[in-house]
Design goal:
This protein has helices at about 5-25, 405-410; strands spanning about 25-40, 60-75, 75-90, 115-125, 130-140, 150-160, 165-175, 185-200, 205-215, 225-235, 240-250, 260, 260-270, 275-285, 340-350, 355-365, 375-390, 390-405, 430-435. The termini are far apart. The chain contains 2 helices and 19 strands. It is globular and about 65 Å long. The protein has one domain (about 30-435): Porin (Beta Barrel), CATH 2.40.160. A hairpin with a 2-residue loop joins β15 (about 340-350) and β16 (about 355-365). It has an 18-stranded antiparallel beta barrel.
């Protein structure tokens, strides 16, 4: 072998070694989940709840897989990636990705279904000592997700100051160039400022300010500007943990219409007997004017608004749902801007590997329009499950809702327009679930 060839081989080996050294220094983490969901019911259309008179029952099944890879350089810097694959058994026309095909649940199952959920770096800034997340990341409000809980592109920083913790963030969820505009000029941006202060081991209080500026010509969000100020707390009283919250909104829904909404609520959990009692209530302001919706509480969109503490399947969006939601409100907790008044109660516990919960909830609109009735309904549900392994569980849940007169009245003007159906059957759903996390 001549000298030139030897030198070339040595250079190649050296280059490979230079590349491989930092890779070998990484700490690689893999996480994920698989969840199967089967539904038997009389109202579910595969995307959301759809009431009807004398409906035919049907069964559908779907699944979700999530794959997460974290490349950790050290305790101060890591890259987080998170991907998702959704499938309905038998396929879904249009696909969960909104494509013209289907979601690979069809015969031969060879369609593209991979979705990007998160890609961001998480690091501790050496200059400020703040923790920074930069990129496509999850974010949740301080109000149990009633305003916004979603994955978004942006930057978010948090820093501790003794008993206090401050946060500052910017997220962009629209950059509109549809009309031929220049990038970065017509955008929808969310700015967040928040703080938490630990008064004692039993009391923490928080405050936040959110500002949304929407210069785009698109419909998300459905307003021009929004200011939202709020307070929240986490209080321990004996065996109970109570989390009250309140927030007010102001801004411009359109160039000629103001936006003035508010929300208030509380979530509590108390140890009672072998399990825990859960109680929660919310009030979202509404407006009787369906055009201006001036005084309606406003979320970014209905698809990114949740209230998981309700533990409902039918009245509000379920925290168990994956690709779809069985809510008869179609995920719109504001009920078309009418606002919502709702109370929920439940009991949950474990017996060895067995777990269970039972819940009841009632909801009605905060404001009526014309002669509409306010009652949405009352839901009863129960779930029992078994933990096969530490990270594998199976469960069955049954939910039934007694529709209020705003949802099933035979009189057109009595029904909540856009939600109620004449003489609708009470909805029910049986859910079968298998969940594996790693």
């Amino acid at each position: 072998m001549n000298f030139k060839k030897s030198a070339a081989i040595a250079a190649a080996v050296g280059a490979l070694g230079a590349i491989s050294v930092p890779a070998m220094a990484l700490e690689n983490e893999f996480h994920g989940l698989y969840k199967f969901m089967g539904y038997q019911g009389n109202f579910f259309n595969g995307v959301t709840g759809k009431l009807s008179a004398d409906p035919a029952p049907g069964f559908m099944a779907e699944q979700r897989a999530r794959l997460q890879y974290i490349a950790k350089v050290n305790a101060d810097f890591k890259l987080v990636t998170h991907f998702e694959l959704d499938t309905r058994f038998g396929g879904k026309t249009g696909g969960y990705l909104g494509t013209t095909g289907d979601d690979a649940g069809n015969l031969d199952a060879d369609k593209l279904t991979l979705e990007t959920k998160n890609i961001y770096v998480d690091f501790n800034c050496p200059l400020t000592g703040a923790n920074v997340k930069l990129g496509m990341q999850p974010w949740a409000d301080s109000y149990q997700g009633l305003f916004l809980i979603a994955d978004m592109t942006g930057a978010h920083a948090t820093k501790n100051f003794g008993p206090a913790k401050a946060s500052l963030g910017w997220f962009r969820f629209d950059d509109n160039t549809v009309d031929g505009g220049q990038v970065g000029r017509k955008t929808a941006d969310l700015f967040v400022l928040g703080g938490k202060y630990t008064i004692s081991k039993d009391v923490t209080v928080g405050a936040s300010y959110y500002y949304v500026n929407n210069d785009t010509t698109l419909t998300v969000p459905a307003f021009n500007r929004l200011h939202m100020f709020g307070l929240d707390a986490d209080i321990k009283v004996g065996p109970a943990n109570i989390k009250p919250f309140v927030a007010v909104q102001s801004g411009d829904r359109t160039a000629t219409t103001d936006l003035n909404g508010y929300l208030l609520g509380a979530v509590s959990k108390a140890k009672v007997g072998p399990g825990s009692v859960n109680l929660s209530a919310i009030y979202l302001s509404g407006d009787s004017n369906g055009t201006t919706k001036k005084d309606s509480f406003t979320a970014i969109t209905s698809s990114t608004s949740y209230f998981v503490p309700a533990k409902m399947w039918l009245l509000v969006r379920s925290g168990n749902a994956i690709n779809s939601s069985t809510s008869i409100l179609g995920n719109d907790l504001t009920v078309g801007g009418r606002g919502l008044v709702a109370v929920f109660a439940g009991y949950e516990g474990t017996m060895g590997k067995l777990f269970y919960n039972a819940n009841i909830g009632y909801a009605e609109t905060a404001e009526n329009r014309n002669s509409e009735k306010s009652s949405i309904g009352t839901e009863l549900n129960a779930q029992v499950g078994y933990k096969m392994l530490d990270n594998v569980s199976v469960s069955a849940a049954l939910a039934y809702a007694f529709l209020g007169d705003g949802m099933n009245s035979a009189t057109t003007t009595d029904r909540i327009s856009g939600f109620g159906v004449a003489n609708a059957d009470d909805p029910y759903a049986l859910n079968l679930q298998l969940s594996y996390t790693f």
